[in-house]
Amino acid sequence: MTTITLVQGDITRVSADAIVNAANSSLLGGGGVDGAIHRRGGPAILRECRALRASRYGKGLPTGRAVATIAGDLDARWVIHTVGPVYSETEDQSDLLASCYRESLRVADGLGARTVAFPAISTGVFRWPMTDAARIAVTAVREAETAVREVGFVLFDERAYAAFASQLPD
């Protein structure tokens, strides 16, 4: 059984076997969590992301999928990059958001990772409402068949922490 924990803080400062990056499809860095992971992790992550673009993901990583690189200078062995959907009021993309969590755990299993740290995927510039994103994330992790022992949601602020906490039993 996977234990779910919550931490309020900076995902680039946590220790885990794998840290999940809320990446953009280019895999080449960007803003928010993606930019922070690339900055703190250093150039080794970008080199591997460029190699992935040159080989398997010439058109970018599809939304809802995940792929791993080394973690560079982060306190982790791997970074698992996943591309969340942009929120839409007219099109339900909940399954794509859940897929980010499921696929990241599938990649973690393939690597042998036992601890994984997730951000709140798609809740920044992709505008997914925090409470709904928390519900989808926690449900996807709870329902996933995985060998990962501990999933930590690393949440940037009090609002995100409260939204995820409301999804977990006391």
Radius of gyration: 14 Å
Q: How does the major sheet shape up?
A: 6 strands, mixed
> The CATH topology is what?
Leucine Aminopeptidase, subunit E, domain 1
**SSE string, helix = H, strand = E?**
EEHHEEHEHEH
Helicity range of the residues? 25-40%
Which stretches of 5+ consecutive residues score pLDDT under 50? none
Treating each run of at least 4 consecutive H or I residues as one helix, how many helices?
Answer: 5
Determine the oligomeric state from the structure. single chain
Specify the structural class. Answer: alpha/beta
Q: Terminal Cα separation, in Å? A: 18 Å
Residue fraction in strands: 15-25%
Count of domain modules: 1
Number of strands: 6
Mean pLDDT: 96
Assigned CATH architecture = 3-Layer(aba) Sandwich
Please state how the strands of the largest beta sheet are arranged side by side: 1-6-5-2-4-3
Shape: globular
Task: Please characterize this protein's 3D structure.
This protein has one domain (3-165): 3-Layer(aba) Sandwich (Leucine Aminopeptidase, subunit E, domain 1), CATH 3.40.220. The radius of gyration is 14 Å and the shape is globular. By secondary structure, it is of the alpha/beta class. The protein starts with a strand and ends in a 5-residue tail after the last helix. The mean pLDDT is 96. The protein has helices at 32-41, 43-54, 94-111, 130-143, 158-165; strands spanning 3-8, 18-23, 66-70, 78-83, 115-118, 150-155. Helices cover 36% and strands 19% of the residues. Strands 1-6-5-2-4-3 form a 6-stranded mixed beta sheet, with helices on both faces.
